[in-house]
Amino acid sequence: MGRLFVVTAAAGLGLTAPAVAGNFTPPEGCTTFLTVQAKGCRVSNHFTCEGDAKGDQWRTDFDQEGPFFSSRIDVEAQWVESFEINPPVRQVLDPNPSDPASFSDLLSTGRDNYIFGLSDDTGERTRVRGSDTLTGKQVVIDGITLQETAFNFTETDLDGNVLRRSRGNEYIHPEWRLFFSGPSEWDGGDGNYVPIDGSPVQFIFPGEPGFASTQPIFDCDAVMSSLPFPPKS
Q: Would you kindly state where each structural domain of the chain is located, as residue ranges?
């Protein structure tokens, strides 16, 4: 999601386009801690930055054309802000959500409902309503044990018109306090759901081959990553 963000700021987040295959370099004062190669021709680099609130985490996504999206979440996995490149747009979480997203509630009760507003640099304001529920299933991907969730969310304009919605499954890592995409369906507002799957395939840590890569390697002959993904993934 998201919509206007100046190119110079995007470059400061490592979002320069077009980009050639290489290593991701986070902004000054930031440290990359995880690279995730995923289905759907996407690779994501996760990083943290000095000066951010404790628990804040960033993610920058790359497809075959280079970086296309970056976002920041807080310790409760709330969608704090995001940046798109084409066109450059910044979107932020509105103050005082009606029902803030809570990673802690999801872990303690098995379910989290949320209602919050988003605003972007073009002046668009929207509302997001949805839920995450632990299914009780665990999956092991590349040696990492994750918990499966079922999710659904709908984003509307202030008049209640549906702009986009999604439903399906995601995965969480309780200690990392991160969501990862899974098999799901996406509706861009026309009422037709399209299947997508951005599930992780490889988790790559500092010192391992492929860490900080900006070149996706899975499904790239079949698809160019262009569909947005649910907020927390």
A: 7-21+32-204
